[in-house]
Structure formats: C-alpha cells, structure tokens
Amino acid sequence: MKRLYLQEVATRDGFQNEATFIDTADKIAMVDALSRCGFAKIEVTSFTSPKAIPALRDAEAVMHGIRRHPGVEYTVLVPNVRGAERALGCGIDEANLVMSVSEPHNRSNLRMTREQSFAQLREVIEVIGNSRVAVNVSLSTVFGCPMQGDVKEDEVLGWIDRFAQLGVRGVTLCDTTGMAFPSQVQQLSARVLARFPQLQVTLHFHDTRGMALANTLAALQAGVDRFDASLGGLGGCPYAPGASGNVCTEDLLHMLTLMGYDTAVDLDQVLAASARLPGLVGHATPSQVLKAGKRLDLHPIPQHVQTLSRQVVSTLTEATQ
Questions:
Q1: Fewer Cβ within 10 Å of end Cβ, the chain: N or C?
Q2: How far from chain centre, in Å, is Cα 119?
Q3: How many CB atoms lie within 10 A of CB 222?
Q4: Are residues 158 and 195 in contact, defined by beta-carbon separation less than 8 angstroms?
Q5: Alpha-carbon separation of residue 8 from 27, 145, 203 (angstroms)
C-alpha cells in the first residue's frame, strides 16, 4: 500500500489557540513525545511576535530544548524577515510561510492585502536564500472563505505558481475554515499535482463541518500523499465563525491504518500523547478514538451473557412443567 506522510501541527496550530499558557517544559516534552511517534514532520512553534501570539512567546526556548530525531523534520511558522532571522538561529529544517488566497480573509487575519503579504514573504524567502532550510507556503482558504465564499481554482493555481517561481519546496492547501467538500478537494488536488509535479504538496483540513476524513479520502484518490493533522483535534481559525479544530491526528491515523496505508506512525504512542492534552490545555479534546478506543480494542463479555445459556435452559424447563 502507498506510503503516506503525516505531519503533526498541534504544538503550533493547536497550542496558539489555547487560552491557557502551556509551560515551556511541557511543550518540549510534548514535541519529544511526538518525535518518537514516527511523524514525517512536526510544526513545533511560531516565530510570530510574542505580542501577537503570546501563547508561543517561548519559541526559541522550545526549539533549543527539544531532542531531534533522525528522519523527522522540524518546521516552524515564519511570518516576516525578523521571524526568519530568529528561526534560522534555532536550527530549523523548514520555514512555513502563510498567506490567504482570499483577500478579505488575508486582511482580517494578517492585516495586509494579498500583494503586501506576497511581497513580505518574498523577502523571507530571499533571507533564507541558499541555506539548508526548506521553504513551504501554506495557502489559507483555498477551498472557500466565510466572507468571500468560493475561491476560483485558477486563482489558487496562480498564487501557487508565483511561489513556485521563487523556488519554494512545497505548498500546503489549507481548508482553514472547514468549507471543503470531497469532489472539490479531489478536483483541485489533481490539478495542483499535475501542474506542479516538482512541489511537495500537503493537504490541511479542518473538521468544522465533519468532512475532514472524507476530504482526506478524496485527496488520496487524487494522489496526495502528505497530510497535516493536529493531536486531539486542537486548533481552529478565529475568523471562521463556529470553526472547530484541525482534523484529529489519531482519528485520521486510525482510519489510514485500517485501510492498510503505511504511515510509519505508531498509533499507540500517538494515543498516549493525546491522553496528556486535557491536563495541559484544561479541557477535553474532540478525539473520537481516544474516547472509544481502536476498532478492535475488545471488551470483556458481560457476566450475564456468559450465564445466558443456563438461564434459557432454566426458563424452558419451567415452561414445560
């Protein structure tokens, strides 16, 4: 079965949305636990201004404190040149740059026009230059914007092309507001893969309307082999009313494992890490597999069932007397 690459984003995309500040030592311990699970990539933190995202104000300390595992790439969100300079001093493997293909969403989320964002990110790419650090661009709202509505596929392809010309390694198609649906996902994914075979293409789904797993299957049918996911389903978008978090890592992994895909990720270790989240964030998570267990986690047969045959015989005997 096809090899897939799962990329964990909870310690950045998830933790930045939490009201409770998670201690630096706990963040480091969580990243170390995730590193042992077998993920292809872990998005550790964000080098955004601490004033903008105070939950991740300890980015340098976290990056310097984690234990690197061979085969795991450690990526961080980099918003601007200052963030890039900070991140480059921390031995990152990849810089993840973000902008929205929707003009109103980009203005709401980043306080800039799309052209201003592109100019700023181009400067970041120039700063990273020919270093060993790879660059990925995450394009938000490619499947729809709650303020604009649908986003034209050709517009999405146009923005990918502009970044491809700058030499980025990869692009992530983000369903930031949970508006994607399977046939749409399959069609856009197929077009992106066909037009940009040189790019590492990742799909990033939110489960706002309960379609994240279905959308994953559609992307698989189109040929996508990389997916972001968030432990416990943490995350969300502040500019999407009613939005829930990202697709839950353990739920996605459970499905892919049952289907026979090779992810190289250990589900039991992922579940153990997820079980620690409520204590860190102070609330329950929407993880379904953590609540219900894996499909073949069997339960003891109730005692009354074991004695049922004797009860039936006794009942029949009484009926014939």
A1: C
A2: 26
A3: 18
A4: no
A5: 14, 24, 12
- Nearest-angstrom CA–CA distance, 41 and 31: 11
pTM above 0.90, yes or no: yes
Residues 6+ apart with CB under 8 A from 158: none
What are the angstrom distances between the C-alpha of 14 and each of 46, 74, 197, 234?
Answer: 11, 16, 30, 5
Is the Cβ–Cβ distance between 215 and 177 less than 8 Å? no
211 neighbors 182 (Cβ within 8 angstroms):
yes
Give the Cα separation of 178 and 206 in Å (integer): 5
Whole-number Å distance between alpha carbons of 89 and 202:
26
Q: Does CATH number 2.40.50.40 belong to domain 5-320?
A: no
pLDDT (tens digit, 9 = 90+) per residue, 256-313? 999 999 999 999 999 999 999 999 999 999 999 999 999 999 889 888 787 776 665 5
DSSP type of residue 99 = E
E strand intervals along 89-199: 94-100, 134-140, 170-175
Helices (H), 36-102: 59-65, 81-88
Q: Name the phi and psi angles at 134, rounded to 5.
A: -85, 160
The full set of domain ranges for the chain reads 5-320
Catalytic residues: 237
Cα dihedral angle (19, 106, 234, 225), rounded to 10 degrees?
-160
- First-to-final CA distance of the chain: 62
Nearest to 211 by CA among 186, 193, 191: 186
